[in-house]
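dumping the sequnces here before i forget
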Amino acid sequence: MTTRLLPTCVNCAAIVAKATRVERGKFITVEGIEGVGKSTNIGFIREAIEARGLRVSTTREPGGTPMAEEIRGLLLDHGDEPVPNIVELLLMFAARALHVNNVIKPALDEGIWVICDRFTDTSRAYQGAGRGFPLSDINRLADWVHGDLQPDLTVLLDAPVETGIGRAGQRGEPDRIEKEKADFFARARECYLSLAAAEPERFAVVDANREKAAVRATIDAVINGILDEVLD
Ligand SMILES: Nc1ncnc2c1ncn2[C@@H]1O[C@H](COP(=O)(O)OP(=O)(O)O)[C@@H](O)[C@H]1O
Ligand SMILES: [Mg+2]
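..and the predicted 3d for all of it:
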């Protein structure tokens, strides 16, 4: 009787690895000028994802790690020392480098969905259109700091500047950037809308100039659309 040799399963390890490999989480960013409802709607996005049984983590920029939160403190309240625009831009990206490497990528790798309150589009809108840095400079920094990580979805909450400022005004003392004049936010809003027009597959533009429940209904539809695609 001949002994039948079982074929050695050279691919076994790869097959097992594939079966147990966690699906990378999705990276969702939420953008818009002050007071449009980013923090409010991040809560709704989180609930919509959790309702489908997925793990989700929320974070914010600038900040999201202990050291990046310290940079946030410097950026938003630095005492009397002037902050040159270039310092604001570089500190934003320094904080982002910490956040991307220490928090966002590790979570996504573990299969956790990450919802981030502001990301690089904020630098485009605020340091770019607001402060006057060319978009090409900001995109160069973005490539350098997170060339291999782009949001899967960016929810842009859009509302007139007066709406945002009016809502934010109810929150208490404004920080250094919130103290900017209306035309700064008007430039930022226009920039956001042109970024969204240039990348319609990444952006969902949501009319935030409506009651909370109506905004939430749109948000739920957008997020459930993505969840349906992923979970199908
Ligand atoms: N659609 C809405 N209509 C009215 N008020 C809103 C709406 N969305 C949020 N708010 C309120 O406006 C204020 C600013 O909202 P917030 O979520 O903190 O904005 P952001 O994080 O974009 O600065 C909060 O008091 C919030 O409860
Ligand atoms: Mg907020």
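The CA atoms of residues 147 and 213 lie 36 Å apart.
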